[in-house]
Amino acid sequence: MKTLKVGMLGAGVVGSQIARLLIANKSDLASRAGANLELVSIAVKDSKLKRDGIPAALLTNDAKSIVNDPQIDLVIEVIGGIDPAKELILTALKNGKSVVTANKALLAKHGAELYAAADKANVDLYYEAAVAGAIPILRPLRESLVGDHVIRVMGIVNGTTNYILTKMDENGAAFADALKEAQALGFAESDPSADIEGFDAAAKAAILAGLAFHSRVTDNDVYREGISKITAADVKVAKAMEMVIKLLAIAELTPEGAVSVRVHPALISRTHPLASVRDSFNAVFVEAESAGQMMFYGKGAGGAPTASAILGDLVAVARHKVNGGIGPKESDYADLKIAQIGQTKTRYLIRLNVADKPGVLESVAHVFASHQVSIQTVRQTGAGDKAELIVMTHSSNESSLSATVKDLKNLPVVTDVASVLRVEGVN
Amino acid sequence: MKTLKVGMLGAGVVGSQIARLLIANKSDLASRAGANLELVSIAVKDSKLKRDGIPAALLTNDAKSIVNDPQIDLVIEVIGGIDPAKELILTALKNGKSVVTANKALLAKHGAELYAAADKANVDLYYEAAVAGAIPILRPLRESLVGDHVIRVMGIVNGTTNYILTKMDENGAAFADALKEAQALGFAESDPSADIEGFDAAAKAAILAGLAFHSRVTDNDVYREGISKITAADVKVAKAMEMVIKLLAIAELTPEGAVSVRVHPALISRTHPLASVRDSFNAVFVEAESAGQMMFYGKGAGGAPTASAILGDLVAVARHKVNGGIGPKESDYADLKIAQIGQTKTRYLIRLNVADKPGVLESVAHVFASHQVSIQTVRQTGAGDKAELIVMTHSSNESSLSATVKDLKNLPVVTDVASVLRVEGVN
Ligand SMILES: NC(=O)c1ccc[n+]([C@@H]2O[C@H](COP(=O)([O-])OP(=O)(O)OC[C@H]3O[C@@H](n4cnc5c(N)ncnc54)[C@H](OP(=O)(O)O)[C@@H]3O)[C@@H](O)[C@H]2O)c1
Ligand SMILES: NC(=O)c1ccc[n+]([C@@H]2O[C@H](COP(=O)([O-])OP(=O)(O)OC[C@H]3O[C@@H](n4cnc5c(N)ncnc54)[C@H](OP(=O)(O)O)[C@@H]3O)[C@@H](O)[C@H]2O)c1
């Protein structure tokens, strides 16, 4: 049996698990790949540090030596970030090595350049682990659904924010307290902004949108709102309406044939399949013309789950090296436009604190009507100084809705616009 | 751009949708496959019959002419059944054509012979549509999880039985009434035995087991029980215990390293992800060593969803014809043994009608203990002549459990063993 030499860049949370599994499952992986996969070198920042289960002789702090080593056939990149990951991957590809990576940040920003380099070198660049960890979602989108037309992809793709929102829903906790709990348990980093402000989800949304719609989409194309403004009061209202708040990464076709790609918190019905995705689990809901509605559910992060996805890709690219051929390339033939957020249509739930006087509802309704935003339901709670109006709109343009909210804020009877939330999963 | 000629065998529920989509989505499919996919011939039983959207000139009743036509590159088989599908596929493969099929019955019985023929001819034999319709599950198992060790696959893979069980759960309907409703709505055939006796699910279980465990598994290896004995009383008890009854196709690794593969109704907790799979939807729950728990959910049947899966496969095999290479082959290197059902361990829920006398519980408990079946909980309901004992066991061998039930039936204080149901999704 042939032997393929594997070099790995990084041995952190994910890389250490990959190394462990490559060694422990050597013989199964060989049977499945049709070649021995021999881990010959691992680049880290600190090559002097002892690492459990990793032979010290494999470690180097010279990452370039790996991507330039003519003996090495396959490269795994699990350093993360743009620099030096980008140059290392480009060099590996140019040198004829197939590359497997989990680097969503890099792919969302420089995907086009990397795909072109892989194409030019006629090697594989695989990255199933970059979105939703262990859940097979990129391969199904790229291969299983390639004979269909995807209409919408809607995912819970960030475990940290889903954990926080789950705790807020379960315990009525405030955002800050739920975040602290997540940090204490290791579900959120000490600087949590990449997660809670939606940057991580936005990178994944860009990758999903590009594959689903055969177009080029980068992180800059993604409209983004995080969850830090979600209050316990929002969660309580959602509950009362049998809904739940989730941070969603959405990529959908607009009626005009553009792609709307966005990340924001949204209300969904408790009966929606995504509503039962709790804690740090991830799930991606896909709607396609012929296939209908699908959902893919599982662990979105963690060393071992992410390593599982990386090794699946590694076996695939190894098979290609053994048997010839190459995986399907990124296709951007459809070249769809990105829809402006102002033109994106959704339903909204708006909570207003109002004076409890006759005529309040009339003046509020007038503001909505003046912007062609039509109201589906209005509910009034409390009384006296604390009266609250909860307005659910029909599907409306984001720009009309923004204009409505601006005018509501200036309305004398409105003390405060307490919150504005999108409602997804209904038409 | 190159043109690949496609021949199709069958134009029924699935075939007619494939033909429609091949024509309607011609240009998208070409961009994605890298070649025009031209449907040149369709075999049917009655070639004189007019068919909506299908040019009459494409129809023939000579299926052999398609698989022997040297002009044809790719063959789609959607006739179903063993004869003549098997010979037609074998001939097509031998003649160097890649084949895409949805024929689970054939693959579960003669898979090994067909895979060997494809291997010998160095062409693709793809069949994503054979299990769970539009849901990408075979490709994820075969490719995405190839670097991992699957521990268990547990699926709701038959829409008809899931529809019936959902109605029994929602309305407290009797089996016969729910079946009649399903037939009236077209969710069950007039002869429903392939579905309700679990034959269809068993074929799918065999295919899933083979892929998950890299072993050869045929429909004869699958232990099978249908749902026709499930009563409204069973459903009621399940509900009271916050569980739901589902027909499950299970393939799992036993502690001895064999594969247990079986289809039977079972109780699962209402909090299990499979519990919320309702009506005719399908879902497959997968547990793997590194990836953890995953679920794949969607439409398991229907013309358009099944056609979506077929077209995904068609584009994949077309790409291979254009770019060289070939998809991953079935691997059976692990060659695991099939576990006997007697050795399979599960938990059980047993309902007994008993006399309401002192000492009843003692003699019942004695029978369980004598077969080393340990009891987790006992609940007594009713009183007088109608007393009922509901016993939940810990995990037990099927053979010990059967011996227990036999002895219980002979116990004077037991009037009747009302039902014996497996409990899944807990350890
Ligand atoms: N963690 C997850 O659950 C998860 C899930 C999905 C995707 N991902 C992605 O997987 C990638 C890796 O994540 P991770 O959590 O494993 O990161 P990590 O724990 O921070 O590990 C990074 C590794 O890269 C090494 N490294 C950093 N700079 C280097 C340089 N210039 N040259 C050589 N080695 C260098 C570090 O070396 P030292 O060990 O010496 O510091 C460390 O071993 C990222 O792209 C991430 O987005 C992670
Ligand atoms: N229906 C689903 O939802 C579904 C889902 C997943 C998988 N599948 C699988 O897909 C396959 C097709 O199912 P289906 O529901 O489309 O079946 P179907 O509606 O019964 O269609 C069968 C087709 O095959 C043709 N045919 C039968 N015998 C033939 C012969 N000897 N030579 C040439 N043509 C012949 C029939 O011709 P006529 O039209 O002239 O009668 C008909 O067009 C089966 O393997 C099934 O298990 C079906």
Automatic annotation (TrEMBL), chains A, B:
UniProt-annotated catalytic positions: 204
Catalytic activity: L-homoserine + NADP(+) = L-aspartate 4-semialdehyde + NADPH + H(+); L-homoserine + NAD(+) = L-aspartate 4-semialdehyde + NADH + H(+)
SUPFAM superfamilies assigned to the protein according to its UniProt record, in alphabetical order: ACT-like, Glyceraldehyde-3-phosphate dehydrogenase-like, C-terminal domain, NAD(P)-binding Rossmann-fold domains
GO biological process: methionine biosynthetic process; threonine biosynthetic process
Pathway in which the depicted protein is active: Amino-acid biosynthesis; L-methionine biosynthesis via de novo pathway; L-homoserine from L-aspartate: step 3/3; Amino-acid biosynthesis; L-threonine biosynthesis; L-threonine from L-aspartate: step 3/5
Origin: domain of life: Bacteria
Chain sites annotated for binding NADPH: 104
Binding site for NADP(+): 9-16
Keywords: Amino-acid biosynthesis, Metal-binding, Methionine biosynthesis, NAD, NADP, Oxidoreductase, Sodium, Threonine biosynthesis
Binding site for L-homoserine: 189
Cofactor: a metal cation
Gene Ontology terms for molecular function: homoserine dehydrogenase activity; metal ion binding; NADP binding
Pfam families according to UniProt: ACT (PF01842), Homoserine_dh (PF00742), NAD_binding_3 (PF03447)
Annotated ACT domain residues: 349-422
Protein EC: 1.1.1.3
Role played: Catalyzes the conversion of L-aspartate-beta-semialdehyde (L-Asa) to L-homoserine (L-Hse), the third step in the biosynthesis of threonine and methionine from aspartate.
Similarity section: Belongs to the homoserine dehydrogenase family.
Protein name, entry field: Homoserine dehydrogenase
